[in-house]
Amino acid sequence: MLPADNRLRRREDFAIAVRRGRRAGRPSLVVHLHRQETSGFGAPARTPVTARPSEPDTLRQSVAEDPHAEVEQAPPPRAGFVVSKAVGPAVVRNVVKRRLRHLIRDRMALLPAGSLVVVRALPPAAQADHSDLARDLDAAFDRLLGRSGRPVAVRADGPAAKPGATA
Predict the structure, then answer these.
(1) Higher pLDDT pick, 165 / 78
(2) Cα 140 from Cα 115, distance rounded (Å)
(3) What are the Cα distances from residue 98, in Å, to 31, 78, 151?
């Protein structure tokens, strides 16, 4: 299961990822990746309280350097899945979706902060086993993230890409 912060839910977010993002197609799936701008990283989430001109400069400095001030953090990457009826009946679609969700969970750390990912399963995903889906997903991420032929580092309990695989 993906943590709530990493789930793509809104229709608009799916549309942004598919329309504005880059796409990498593989035999069993298509991955859309949209990297959002995170130029505000480290900026205050709210406008800092400024001192009045009559107040001393030390007060202004203490407000600006407050270690407890809320700081905006880069949003986590989020992923969503599209598994149409062309993949198969409901049971098959749910199995494919669970496998993809498990594979994405292991690879969320590889994605840039604030990115939106949509994984669209194609009909061959119904017959693909876990390792085939992992290989296709890794190859798509390699292409989208600009990696070539390097092994993918995932969690210790997750599958790793083969060291000579190319995108």
Answers:
(1) 78
(2) 15
(3) 16, 16, 24
Residue 63 near residue 157, CB atoms below 8 Å: no
pTM score above 0.90: no
Half-sphere exposure of residue 67: CA atoms within 13 angstroms, side-chain side: 0
> In a 10 Å sphere around its CB, with 0-12 CB exposed, 13-18 middle and 19+ buried, how is residue 132 labelled?
middle
d(CA 69, CA 64): 8
Whose CA is closest to 33, among 120, 150, 158?
120
Look at residue 19 in the predicted model and tell me its pLDDT: 94
Q: Which two tokens stand for residue 109?
A: 């750390």
**Chain centre to alpha carbon of residue 5:** 10
Range of the domain at 91: 4-33+75-145
Q: Which residues pair with 24 in a beta bridge?
A: 31
How many domains, in total, are found in the chain? 1
